[in-house]
Amino acid sequence: MSFVLQKDRSISDVLVDTIQFVKHHYKLMLTPMLYIIIPVGILAILSQIYAYRIMSSAFAGSLDFTSNDFIMIMGFAAVFGLLAFVLFFCAMLIGMGAVRQVYEGDTADDYVSYLLRKNLLPFIGLAILYGLAYFIGFIFLIIPGIYLAFALYPSFAAFIFERKSVVESLKRGHELSKENWWFIVGAAFLMYLLMFGIDFVTDLPGSIISFILGMGTNPEAVFMQEGISAAYIIIAVLSGIGYMITFLLYALVGVHVAILYFTLRERKEGDSIADEMAEFESDLSDESADDGFGKDDGLGSDPDSDRNNPDWR
After folding, report:
1. What does the pLDDT look like over 206-263, one tens digit per residue?
2. CA–CA separation, 96 vs 259, rounded Å?
3. Fewer beta carbons below 10 Å: N end or C end of the chain?
4. pTM for this model (two decimals)
5. Whole-angstrom Cα distance, residue 242 to residue 198?
6. How far is residue 286's CA from residue 280's CA, in Å, rounded to a whole number?
7. Whole-angstrom distance between the N-terminal and C-terminal Cα of the chain?
8. How do the domains of the chain map onto residue ranges?
9. Is 61 left (phi over 0), alpha (psi -120 to 50) or beta?
10. Residues 87-112: tens digit of each pLDDT
């Protein structure tokens, strides 16, 4: 089933089409996500176990902030936090990469993985600049920060689909948001409302078990127990599963940002994007006469789309 990316959508349609895209093209994201989702879950479980050790030592009154154990635990927590930050951007890139693969009609099995290797670091750089922009704006009377948070939201998709630099992507995102700021706010609100609902449901079993054990009402009695109980292992595993689901949700966010981007382009540049796609389809038609894979992929000389380029694999 073909999926139409370039069309004018309502706010709810952006979310619905995001879910439909994942339903139809989940295989494009499955392999790269599995490579990352398992380490995410294992790290989450280990971090929970280490957190249990810290709490046990604190309640027992034997926590030494200068001990090697404490330094190791804090170091692990810092490394896990950094890895989680990177991995969640990996998930977002995987989702956007799948949309780009469909958009460009690419059939290479490792295309999304290639985009991860090629774009992850500058993508994180873009995210850092995006965060700094709205944080600084938030300091100045709050309202500028709220405005920039949504006005620059399409920048991530501009970076992936238009192959722009980090700074140019921010400018392009702001350009697409003009006259569509409230539309972006509504679309983002629905997406994150869905994420919140899924997170709440997945966290519920762990919260119920924690309540039954008394971690919320009487944590001292729980953490004064010797050793690591089986119940706490269950909670740690549930927490790890929760991190995995959060990872999957960020892949969904990546698809959502991409669908929103194409919607904004259609709303602002409907004629030009139609001409672009007509030219692209013509290039693909010309390529069909070429039996060699990748001799002319219809995407110009960009090294991202040239499989004869030695850096592609």
Report:
1. 777 766 665 554 555 555 555 556 667 777 788 778 878 888 888 999 999 999 999 9
2. 9
3. N
4. 0.74
5. 10
6. 10
7. 29
8. 11-268
9. left
10. 888 889 999 999 998 888 888 878 88
* Token reading at 191: 């997406």
Q: Which residue has the tokens 């500058």?
A: 122
What's the token pair of residue 185? 């706010």
The token duo for 37 is 């989702």
Structure tokens at 275: 């001409």
